[in-house]
Amino acid sequence: AEATGRLRTLEAKLREATAREARLVRENDILRRELRDVEARKVALGLEVAALRQTLHGWVDERKSLLQHKSRLERALSQSLQRNLIELRMARREMEAEMRYIRDLHARRQRVQEARWHEMRTRLQAARGDAEAEAEKARARMAQMVEHVAALRQAHEERNRAAAQAAAKALAAQLSAAEIAQKKLLASVGHRFRELES
Predict the structure, then answer these.
(1) 122-168 per-position pLDDT tens digit
(2) What's the rounded Cα separation, in Å, for the pair 109 and 117?
(3) What does pTM read for this prediction?
C-alpha cells in the first residue's frame, strides 16, 4: 500500500512534470518565435541604423561642405567688405579733396569778386568825385554863361531900345509923311469932286 501510494505520488509528479515540460516546451517555442522576431527586428534595426549612419554620414559630409561653403562665403564677404571699405575711404578722400577744392575756389572767387567790387567802388567814387568836379565846373560855366547872357540881354535890350527909338522916330516921320500925303490926296480928291460937280 505504501508503495502504491508512492507510485501514485510519483505518477502524479510525473504528470505534473510532463505537463510542466509541455508548458515549458510551448513557452520555449513562444520564446524562440519571439527571439526570431527580435533577431529579425534586430537585423531590420541594424539595417535602419546602417541607413541612418549612411544618412548621418551624408549629413555630416553635407554639413562639412556647407561649412566650407560658408567659410568661403565669409572670406569672400570679408574681402568684399574690405575692398568696399577701401573704395569708400578713397571715395571719401576724393570727395573731401573735391569739397576742399570747391571751397578754396569759392573763397578765391569771393576774394576776387570782393577785390573787383572794391576796385569798382573806388573807381565809382573817383568817377563820382570827377563828375562832381565836372558838375561844379559846369555850374560855374553855367553861372558865367548866365551872367554873360544877362549882360548880352541887357546890351541887346539897350540896343533894341535905341533901335526902337530910331524906328519910332522913323515911323513918326513915315506917319507924318503919310499924313501929309493923305492930306494931299484928300485935297486932290476934293478938288476932283469939285471939278466934277462944276
Answers:
(1) 877 776 777 677 667 767 776 776 676 677 667 667 776 776 677 66
(2) 12
(3) 0.36
